[in-house]
Amino acid sequence: DAKTTQPNSMESNEEEPVHLPCNHSTISGTDYIHWYRQLPSQGPEYVIHGLTSNVNNRMASLAIAEDRKSSTLILHRATLRDAAVYYCILREANAGGTSYGKLTFGQGTILTVHP
Amino acid sequence: DAGVIQSPRHEVTEMGQEVTLRCKPISGHNSLFWYRQTMMRGLELLIYFNNNVPIDDSGMPEDRFSAKMPNASFSTLKIQPSEPRDSAVYFCASSRDLSSYEQYFGPGTRLTVT
């Protein structure tokens, strides 16, 4: 499985933007970039995903480098509720691939949001 | 929709006992995933099913672990016999199918084996 590298932890202040980086230099052409987050004492939840173009949804934005070897999850205005572990995951989109449908979680980035 | 339902939420058992964890996926979802989370190893995929058929069980740690999905609305993960190192939070997740970009996770079962 292609691997991702994220900082162990990051801190932010409430109502400020947060940029969470992820490196995935071994990404293949059929890998989607997914972000999940895990709030304390809960299961992970989907945040956003993309392939090549930048993506926006109600939760966040995803900026993908032109060479696709890195990406950044952007929380436009952090709230206390955004304190969580954020996981950057590569998901194989090739239906014939051995990892099709699987999510392989790394250690993620622990985001702390200060009031 | 009630989301993914897992039971029990907490389980404490003694070493050597059989443990059965249960999961009800979201109605209409055809893919189901079992994960285990520990501080040391993080979140690991144990096994996943598509249309009730196991697709990949390479993450199942030992023969003591088994999983079944007898129908589209129910799955079990069984540990027999249990050991202290099996203590972890076990999550079940479901998605519409394997091409879906979103997996929906349940609240987890916290297992403690003494």
Q: If you had to describe this structure to a student in words, what would you say it looks like?
A:
The complex is a heterodimer of chains A (115) and B (114). By secondary structure, chain A is mostly beta strands. Chain A has no helices and nine strands. Chain A has strands at residues 9-13, 18-23, 31-38, 45-50, 55-56, 61-64, 70-75, 84-92, 109-114. Chain A has a five-stranded mixed sheet, with no helix packed on it. Chain A has a four-stranded antiparallel sheet with strand order 2-7-6-5, with no helix packed on it. The N and C termini of chain A lie far apart (38 Å). The mean pLDDT of chain A is 93. In chain B, strand 4 and strand 5 (42-50) form a beta hairpin. The mean pLDDT of chain B is 96. In chain B, strands 2, 4, 5, 6, 9, 10 and 11 form a seven-stranded mixed sheet that branches. Chain B has a four-stranded antiparallel sheet with strand order 1-3-8-7, with no helix packed on it. Chain B contains no helices and eleven strands.
Total of DSSP H or I helical runs spanning 4+ residues of chain A:
0
For the largest beta sheet of chain A, what order do the strands appear in spatially?
1-9-8-3-4
Distance between the termini of chain B: 36 Å
Provide a count of the helices of chain B. Answer: 0
The portion of residues assigned to helices of chain A is under 10%
What is the ordering of alpha helices and beta strands of chain B?
EEEEEEEEEEE
Average per-residue pLDDT of chain A, rounded, comes to 93
Broad structural category of chain A:
mainly beta
Kindly estimate the percentage of residues of chain A that lie in beta strands according to DSSP: over 45%
The best one-word shape of chain B is globular
Low-confidence segments of chain B: none
List the main descriptive attributes of the protein structure presented here.
heterodimer; A: about 120 residues; mainly beta; five-stranded mixed β-sheet; four-stranded antiparallel β-sheet; about 0% helix; B: about 110 residues
